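User: Before I run my own analysis I want an independent prediction to cross-check against. Here's the chain; please return only the structure tokens and, at the end, one sentence I can use as a sanity check.
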Amino acid sequence: MKKCHSKKGGFTYVELIVVLSIFAVMSSVILFNYKGYQEKVDMRTLANQVALRLVQAQKYAVGGKIPPRTTVTNWKPSYGVYFSTSTAPGNDADSKDFVFFTDLDNNKIYGNGSGNGSCSSGTGECLEKISISRGSYVKGISMDGTTPITDLYIIFTRPDSGAYFSSATGPISGTYAEITLSSATGSTTSIIDVYPSGRIQLK
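Assistant: Structure tokens:
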């Protein structure tokens, strides 16, 4: 009778190293692609958040919403959003956040014209300071995509649904205002265009 010898299956050291190497490479590629995908999702979410605040300001103004702290007489409902590219945190907004505000004195600027609306004290024109999460920030602000500016007030005043643009230096004219948002790594950006007609476009 022939003796049956069972063969034990398994990996040699070389085969094991090759398989582990392939697995490591595939895992790295998947994780790298996931990180890029997550950045794109985060930037799209941030752009939508900013656009919704702009729409909210527009609706509040046109709808005549009275802010909780106003005691101003003969006030035309006016709301806006303030953006800045400053990297030095001040009393209110810098590149890491933006401000939803009401223009109580109808002067078409936020606070005293230097971006000071007393967000820290909970008084004045500031209604809410929105922090930008995950290391994203306001990378740039420009008019018509060519003329850079450091700060921007986008204001809507009843009964007009159109947008009014100004900065600390005064009124700004242009075909549209462009806000560029960037991820922490700078590899992913989202662009928001706001037109004088009140139209808001995400890119």
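Sanity check: Residues 39-202 form a domain with the minor pseudopilin epsh fold fold (CATH 3.55.40.10).
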